[in-house]
Amino acid sequence: MIFLKILLILIYILGFLLLILGLGGIWVINFANLIFFLLVKRFPLWFIILGFSLAILSEILDYLISIWGAKKAKASPWSIAFSVIFSIVLGIVINSVIPVIGAIMGIFIGTFLGCLSGEMLLYKKELKRSIKASKGALMGRISSLFVKMSFGLFIIFYGILKFF
């Protein structure tokens, strides 16, 4: 049993590190809980369902909070769409060049550049105003990462309490 406890802690650490890097760590954490639920029945079923529900909610909030940050900074609708598209594309591209940390770098850079390019190229706004909108989108994206980390920490702490 001690081996399983150590393994779960290691998976939680890995999941949280992946979460910080924007690489789906909340899913790693939840699948670890599901596997341990199936193996040793230490977690209640409602906790597994809650964990996956929080994971889905965190993915949705990831984009909604980013959009909210951009709107608060008066970003235009297409600029917001560009920020989402660029964040996905650059997250993938930069991660292929710089493994692991490239994903989070690409997501943040893509959010900023997507919004900036939309503001300047489509809406012909001046640089200062475009940068302000881009900063809003970036702050929203960073805020959404903290929300996701909070959900992940909740799942980890409850999992530790129930398993140990």
General description of the model:
The protein has 164 residues and is mainly alpha-helical. α2 (25-40) runs parallel beside α6 (127-163) and α5 (101-122) packs antiparallel against α6. The radius of gyration is 18 Å and the shape is elongated. The model has no long low-confidence stretch (mean pLDDT 92). The protein has helices at 2-20, 25-40, 45-72, 77-97, 101-122, 127-163. The protein is built from six helices and no strands.
What descriptors fit this protein?
single chain, 164 residues, mainly alpha, 87% helix
Offer a quick outline of the entry.
The protein has 6 helices and no strands. It has helices at residues 2-20, 25-40, 45-72, 77-97, 101-122, 127-163.
Give the helix/strand class: mainly alpha
Query: Helix amount, in percent?
Result: over 70%
Domain count, please report it.
1
Largest sheet: none
Characterize the overall form.
elongated
Rg, rounded, reads 18 Å
Mean pLDDT: 92
Report the total helices: 6
What's the total count of β strands? 0
Straight-line N-to-C gap: 10 Å
Topology order in helix (H) and strand (E) letters: HHHHHH
Ranges where pLDDT stays below 50 over 5 or more residues in a row are none
Give the percentage of residues in beta strands.
under 5%
